[in-house]
Each structure stands twice: as C-alpha cells, then as structure tokens.
Write a structure and sequence with these properties.
By secondary structure, the chain is an alpha+beta fold. It has four helices and nine strands.
C-alpha cells in the first residue's frame, strides 16, 4: 500500500517564482463526487489527472491529515481526457510549478478558473516527522484544512469562499 505524506502551505510572497525550474498545466476531476466525500459515504477519492502528455488514475483515502493511503496508476491520455469530459463532477485546472529548495521539491499549484487567486505549495515527505526547508516565501500551513483539498475546491471553489474563509488566510504563520 502506498502512503502519501504531504504538507501544504499558503505562500507569504512571490519570491518562489524566481526559482521555478519547470511548470506544467494540470487538469483533474473526481470520479467519486465531492458530496459523497463530504457526507462520509465515500472511503476514498478517485480522480483522473492529465498533465501534458501523461495521465493517471489516483485513489486516495478520504481522511484528513498529512499521511493518507494513496495509489496511482498511469493511464492512456485519451482515457483521461474521456474521463474528465464525461464522468467527473467538474474539472479543476491549475499550473504546477516545480521549485527545489535544499534538495527538496516544492510543488506550487497556481489555480485557474473558479479557483483563480489561490496558490498553495506542497511538499511530499518520507516520514510524518521528516525535516524540510522553510524558505521565507513559505507561509501558513493548511495541511489539515480540508477546504484546501483539491476535491473540495471543485465543490466549493475559491471564488465562492466567504470573507471569513478568505480572512483565515491572513492569519500569521
């Protein structure tokens, strides 16, 4: 069984942009609807992801936290396009920027469409308590705040967040 250990952060500045090594557009959609995940009737999220000329089917435990069971399988690009167009409850689009800091990869997702304006950095770790660099541009941690989970951004996009939800972003790190 695969385990993904991931920490997610808001960004304190745009200084990370100078260190971008590469960027790629990503489209992903969920085959298990966000409502089923929110009401507790789903034990996993199942998504199709398309990144350039690569595609995957991903199954992730529907639990909050930084460590979750995850399985990922490469699928044909044509299959991913078909899944996104016909079977998903909406499609989330973003640009993923790759930035290395002290040998650690930060994947910075700049959301598009209804989630435009939201930018988060993710870092995958080998263990829950593994150390990682904290560059000055890394802001408040939101790893356990489920509203930042991609599946929830489809059902409740950033543009619909209340002033209180957006104000929570301004809380000091």
């Amino acid at each position: 069984m695969g385990i993904e250990i991931e920490r997610k952060f808001l960004l304190a500045s745009d200084d990370w942009r100078a260190a971008i090594e590469r960027s790629e557009p990503i489209a992903q959609g969920y085959l298990v609807g966000a409502q089923a995940l929110r009401d507790g009737s789903a034990r996993a999220s199942v998504r199709a992801r398309l990144a350039g000329e690569q595609a995957w089917l991903n199954i992730k435990a529907a639990t909050a936290g930084i460590a979750r069971a995850e399985f990922e399988y490469a699928i044909p690009v044509a299959d991913a396009r078909s899944l996104l167009a016909t079977l998903c409850d909406g499609v989330l689009e973003k640009i993923r920027h790759h930035v290395h800091v002290d040998g650690m990869l930060f994947e910075i997702d700049e959301f598009l469409g209804d989630n435009s304006g939201l930018i988060v950095a993710e870092v995958e770790l080998p263990a829950v308590d593994a150390p990682f660099p904290h560059p000055a541009w890394l802001g408040r941690e939101v790893s356990t705040l489920t509203r930042y989970y991609n599946v929830n951004l489809i059902a409740h996009p950033y543009r619909l967040w209340s002033p209180a939800e957006r104000a929570a972003e301004d809380v000091a790190c």
